[in-house]
Amino acid sequence: MNASRSTIKNLRNFTHMRDIHLSTINCKKVIAKNGKNSSSTRWLTRQLSDPYVEKSKTMNLRCRSAFKLIEIDDKYRFLTAGQVVIDCGAAPGSWTQVAVKRVNAVALNPQEPRGIVISIDKQPIYPIEEMPILHNKRHMQS
C-alpha cells in the first residue's frame, strides 16, 4: 500500500500535533548510507517490518522482548498477584513493565494482593509508571 506524498504530509502534520510516531509510513524503504554495510541495512529492514516492534510501540512497551515474557507467563502462569519479583539486568525495563502489571505492583486491581518488583542493572533505567526507582549514586556521579 503506497501513500501519496500529500497524504504523508497531512499525516505528519496530524501526528506532530498529537505526538504520534509514524515509522511505518516513513521507513518502509531503507536506503544504505555511506559507511553502512549490508548486514546493518538488512537488520534495519527486519526491525522496521517486525510486527512485535510495532506492537511494542502501540502498547507503550520499551522493547519487543516483553512479548517473550508475556508468552512464557501465559503458558506457565508463574507471575501472579502478590509476588515479589527481582529483575536482574533490567535495562531497558520492558520485562519490569510486564512484571509490574502481572504481580499487581501498582495496585491496578485493589481486590488482588499487591506485589513488589525490584529492578537491578548497571545501566540506568528510566522511570516506569508509578514505580519507585532506586538510582545507583556511583553511576550518577561519574
Automatic annotation (TrEMBL):
Boundaries of every Ribosomal RNA methyltransferase FtsJ domain copy: 62-128
Organism: Agrilus planipennis (Emerald ash borer)
Protein name: rRNA methyltransferase 2, mitochondrial
Domain of life: Eukaryota
A family per Pfam: FtsJ
Molecular function as annotated in GO: rRNA (uridine-2'-O-)-methyltransferase activity
Keywords linked to the UniProt accession: Methyltransferase, rRNA processing, S-adenosyl-L-methionine, Transferase
CC terms in the record's Gene Ontology section: mitochondrion
Protein family membership: Belongs to the class I-like SAM-binding methyltransferase superfamily. RNA methyltransferase RlmE family.
InterPro entries hit by this protein: RNA_methyltr_RlmE (IPR050082), RNA_MeTrfase_FtsJ_dom (IPR002877), SAM-dependent_MTases_sf (IPR029063)
UniProt keyword Protein transport, yes or no: no
